[in-house]
């Protein structure tokens, strides 16, 4: 996915959760992205807010949202159900964009033009660019209304960041009994030779295969989510 595709997914949601860390304590608030270009994705805050201080202190942010609704319905048994849609999240490094640089971007670009207008109206406002990040779109259809599988997970990265692997993996210990394959309601497991393998794009990391495997062949993999870099390309 390109930055434009990522922006479009976030923009369709509108209001997003922005998470930062303040001396080890997680903090969240609702904000929105207003533009994108080859440098990254852009949002605004005020220099007077704790959000601003946290962004400058850590130079990190994590953003997420859900489309088309965040409403949770319930089925006849009272269990939660969700109409088909997606969640999207991105985590990475931010830098503040000076007003003059924003004005330069605004030449002929309506998205940035509106950002400049807003700052001129509210002078305490400033702009940040998420310039190096990774994330994923978690496209769900849990009742399989529109396709034969529940999940399509698409991971993306930009600005020099790599996508870390997080999820379940079947090791060489697998003896091919097929118990996990039968159990997986996400149809994320297939056979490869005499053993089973997991398709990460279909896997929900629900853990059913992990609990059912008789020989502990399923491992949980959590790679470091962000390796800091200096590249802004
Ligand atoms: S349940 Fe375990 S041993 Fe059996 S196929 Fe799955 S991973 Fe392999
Ligand atoms: S973690 Fe859940 S969704 Fe993923 S492969 Fe195992 S059973 Fe399937």
From TrEMBL:
Residues 165-189, 194-223 form the 4Fe-4S ferredoxin-type domain. GO terms for molecular function: iron-sulfur cluster binding; metal ion binding. Transmembrane segments: none annotated. The keyword Iron-sulfur applies. InterPro entries: 4Fe4S_Fe-S-bd (IPR017896), 4Fe4S_Fe_S_CS (IPR017900), Split_barrel_FMN-bd (IPR012349). Keywords: Iron, Iron-sulfur, Metal-binding. The keyword Iron applies. This is Fmn-binding split barrel.
